[in-house]
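ok trying this again, last paste got cut off
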Amino acid sequence: MAAGTSPILASIARRYELVKKQGLHTAQSTEVSDFIIELTQACLDFLSSRCLSVPLVSKVPGKQYFSFKLTGKSNKISRPVNRQLFNLDLRTKLKYFQKAELVKLPLTDRASFLYTVAMGYCCATDLLKTGDQKTPATFFECLIRHLLARTLGVNPRTQVEVLRLEGRRHYSTDRLNIRSWRHKA
């Protein structure tokens, strides 16, 4: 880890834990939106102030990628980032993440916005930690959970209650096999 990145890592890690903890219980809340905005702001501030953009060669026609690299002697680079979708200037537009505002953005801007929110944390983690693939994946899960909960107006649950003739029973949602349910006429 480069000198001076520990306070940045601690700040980002603290915000990540807030997103993760609050998102489990109240995924659709404005507090989770606020925590995601704060986390994204911290990550984008770090990437814009402490990192360089390193162009990558893409063999996919029409796609341009780059990686972030810590300034200084470090050779560590982040995962590839789609240049057309990632926007560091998003820091001034994070207010759009609130429920009523995000849908007002044109579809292409919305895609860029969400890509930047998701990738900002991933790239910062790539540079601040070594070999950590779990927290970026968990952040993405929290982000999607939050967006779906806001869209559907309901917090996700890990169990569903099923009414049966024998009485109520709870089933874990990860054990339900919907395809095996058959309507018997």
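PB: full thing came through this time. Residues 6-155 form one domain.
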